[in-house]
């Protein structure tokens, strides 16, 4: 999901309305040669806004393909956790206790849970993280990016994934009600963000309602919410073949909403085989990360064949994007390949696993690959542009102060 790359940037601009992100002249490590980032971290760019997120995706993708990550990389992720169980995007000084000013968020916390649960043996850490997530659940059953922020489809969905992979039943994690009855679950929150099957954006999910309560289709939120309503984490196996159709007949169940969302994504991808970026000034430019997320969503809901078209497009076109964007991008592509039964070591001629391993410490073991080769490649880590490609363009004060989710592409711009 998960990025899911361009996480808070456009949401911040959209929600605040007056924010103008300051664009760095050069986001590569060479722009700040005196600044050293943790050797255990994947990617070579500033981790301030996405360190835990990209680390979690990297570890999760490695585990999915049978690679045992370096112990120090797992330890680094564990060390980012606050005493209350939450994770911030990045804590440079983990010897200092978290306080009220530490910008913890639901997305970093849920992503870390998914990675640590998949790796196994970290029940204490994941248990504390889940307790914190439950403690900041909104009355409508969902979650915003920041604790107390308005629920959004992306944040709610990544938390559902964390609950599911940790062995919890998301439908039973409710807020409000009495004696366990009448409370709102995460699925209730997502269903409130689902658009009907008539009108613009039929079947899609909105990121959040606008100020007037209206819902606008958002492809990124839809890809996230399809997984959320299916109760899935980021790594998925292809579902049973199913036709993507949109219907409002009968009760709107989470499964029905997932099918409707898949129908919307199928239509959005039909013309070009990819989704389009909603970044300002990026009209008609492909959104590789959102397309990868859509592949995972479509495969989970309707089987591998349902995602075949956009998957082929990614195989043919995503290599340069991934090389520029770093570990989170490689992880997204690996998860897309995994969801469709495609070999990530021969993805359009690219070995995604080798490329991901090269952005961080050599893994302890690499199924189908060479740890020695990965170690040699990782020496070039400082020359790689790792991490989420757009996090660096927005200030942490903006990100920490608003309720935004991962995987968003501009709340007011449907695709």
UniProtKB/TrEMBL annotation:
Biased composition annotated in UniProt, kind: Low complexity? 358-377
| InterPro entries, alphabetized | Terpenoid_cyclase/PrenylTrfase
Transmembrane domains' residue ranges: 390-409
Which UniProt keyword terms apply here?
A: Membrane, Signal, Transmembrane, Transmembrane helix
Q: Where is the signal peptide?
A: 1-24
Region feature Disordered, mapped onto this chain: 357-384
**UniProt-recorded name of the protein:** Squalene cyclase C-terminal domain-containing protein
The species is Streptomyces regalis
């Amino acid at each position: 999901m998960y990025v899911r790359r361009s996480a808070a940037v456009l949401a911040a601009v959209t929600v605040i309305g007056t924010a103008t992100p300051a664009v760095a002249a050069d986001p590569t490590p060479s722009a700040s040669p005196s600044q050293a980032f943790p050797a255990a971290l994947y990617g070579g760019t500033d981790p301030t806004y996405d360190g835990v997120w990209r680390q979690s995706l990297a570890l999760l993708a490695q585990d999915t393909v049978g690679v045992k990550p370096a112990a120090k990389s797992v330890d680094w992720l564990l060390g980012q956790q606050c005493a209350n169980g939450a994770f911030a995007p990045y804590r440079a000084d983990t010897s200092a206790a978290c306080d009220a000013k530490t910008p913890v968020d639901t997305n970093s916390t849920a992503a870390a849970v998914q990675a640590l649960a998949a790796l196994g043996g970290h029940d204490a850490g994941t248990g504390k993280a889940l307790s914190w997530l439950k403690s900041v659940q909104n009355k409508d059953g969902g979650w915003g990016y920041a604790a107390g922020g308005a629920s959004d489809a992306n944040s709610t969905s990544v938390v559902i994934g964390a609950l599911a992979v940790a062995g919890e039943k998301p439908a039973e994690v409710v807020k409000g009600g009495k004696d366990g009855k009448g409370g709102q679950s995460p699925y209730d929150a997502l269903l409130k963000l689902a658009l009907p099957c008539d009108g613009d954006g039929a079947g899609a999910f909105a990121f959040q309602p606008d100020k007037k309560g209206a819902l606008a289709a958002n492809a990124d939120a839809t890809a996230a919410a399809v997984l959320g309503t299916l109760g899935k984490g980021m790594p998925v196996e292809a579902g049973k073949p199913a036709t993507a159709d949109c219907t409002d007949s009968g009760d709107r169940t989470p499964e029905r909403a997932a099918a409707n969302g898949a129908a919307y994504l199928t239509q959005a991808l039909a013309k070009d085989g990819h989704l389009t970026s909603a970044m300002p000034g990026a009209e008609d430019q492909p959104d590789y990360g959102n397309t990868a997320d859509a592949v995972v969503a479509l495969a989970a809901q309707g089987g591998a064949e349902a995602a075949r078209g956009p998957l082929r497009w990614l195989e043919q076109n995503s290599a340069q994007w991934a090389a520029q964007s770093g570990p989170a991008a490689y992880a997204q592509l690996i998860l897309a390949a995994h969801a469709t039964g495609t070999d990530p070591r021969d993805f359009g001629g690219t070995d995604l696993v080798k490329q991901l391993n090269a952005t961080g410490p050599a893994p302890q073991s690499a199924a189908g690959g060479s740890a020695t080769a990965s170690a040699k490649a990782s020496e070039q880590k400082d020359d790689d542009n790792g991490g989420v490609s757009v996090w660096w363009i927005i200030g942490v004060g903006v990100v920490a102060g608003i309720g935004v989710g991962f995987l968003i592409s501009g709340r007011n711009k449907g695709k």
